[in-house]
Amino acid sequence: MAQIILSSDVYKSTELMRSDGGTYSCQPSNDNIGPVPTLFSHHGIFLHEPNSYLFYLKAIKKAKDLSPCSRALLKYYQFLEDEKLDWNYFPPIKRLKPTYQFRSYLLKSIKLGELAHSTANAYMNHVKNFYLWTIHERYLKVQNEQEAPFKLEFIQIQNQGMLAHIRPTFTVQTSDLRINVPKDNYSKNIRPLSPLSRDSIELLITFLPKVSEELRLQLLLSLDSGLRIEEVSTLTLDALKTATAISESQHRFELTLCPKNTGVQTKYGKRRRIEISIYLLEALRVYQISERRLNRLDKLYYKINQLTDGKLSLHHDLIAVLERCQRHEPLFISQQGNPMTRESIESRWIELRALIQQQDRDFKHRFHDLRATYATYRLSDLLNAKLGTIESLELLMGWMGHKDESTTWKYLRYLQRKEVFKMKFGILDTIMHEALGVDNE
């Protein structure tokens, strides 16, 4: 089965060097673009076309995160291997082309509950873009329409942004390979929001004493600051050092999240400021110097030292993570001395959710819903404070790190339909008191 291996640093420029023994080798010179995911067949053969495409995305297009694309191509090439299909053979009959067979395979996976509609559509879109690139670079030669891997289409999309009155629709390029994603009939959101109600939040808080100290703080970080699970797992001491008080508030601070400067792995590698309550910030600082955490830190640095001395042989992915930890000390570390991962947090959340469901069967929230809870309550609070709608959305968009304003607007549309969220954000501050055991003065 095809597999992905994350390479070591890749350089755009190299030099041909001759050794004293007369042999030649290619040595890197400059333009280091960092690790690049590399696809190999089940026989260990380097897959030239998809790897050239990934290199193009990283080196030319300056892509920050190749994970979604590499996962899609891995899924596609695994399918090709299983079905014994060639990536570049397209017979005239549509249903026999590998791209359409892959689409049918994804649809079956959706029907079996193995894959979400949005994930399948994303896979298909990455495969489409891969073929467009191969055609442009002449890796794939198409003589006529019957030999094409798919049919391009152009559709009109309704503009939901702030400038919709100027440009009500815009045209996007797609293909007949796209997989339709079910939408919320009212809001037209691809993934309907599911923020926790006040009762669900209070129920969650009652279970926090039963979980580890790390998970308790991780849940509160997402609930109080809207952090994504990847950002929670990679939060660093450097990020905590950037805490500055918000002049308009006595109880809120801001932190800087940035992969380069503070080591926090944000989506798209974007730098942003997030807000955090003074109570949670102090709790994180206390945990930072706790004996429990320092014992775990010793184990982590033991592994880093072994890696530096060449005594430890690890997978490229873990080596890159340990090197990042050496530059930016992580706040959360596992009991075994490994950097915390999103997978480990997700596993602990699933266990906690199962425990809560013994008391409330309807508690089916994802970890990501904690982020939606923060955003919904915070926007409601800003609007109730008589701040303008545009100003409120701009603030929230910055704190949440949304790339597209339409993502932030869905919270406003949600609030317009849900009376329950007209309560103030101060409720979360009150609950934060209870969760952290802060004494009321």
UniProtKB/TrEMBL annotation:
This protein's record includes keyword Ubl conjugation: no
Gene Ontology MF terms: DNA binding
Any one GO BP annotation for this protein: DNA integration
Domain Tyr recombinase: 191-425
Sorted UniProt keywords: DNA integration, DNA recombination
Keyword check for Transcription regulation: no
Pfam families reported for this sequence: Phage_integrase
InterPro entries: DNA_brk_join_enz (IPR011010), Integrase-like_cat_sf (IPR013762), Integrase_catalytic (IPR002104), Tyrosine_recombinase_XerCD (IPR050090)
Classification via PROSITE patterns: TYR_RECOMBINASE (PS51898)
Identification of the protein by name: Integrase family protein
Lineage start: Bacteria, Pseudomonadati, Pseudomonadota, Gammaproteobacteria, Alteromonadales
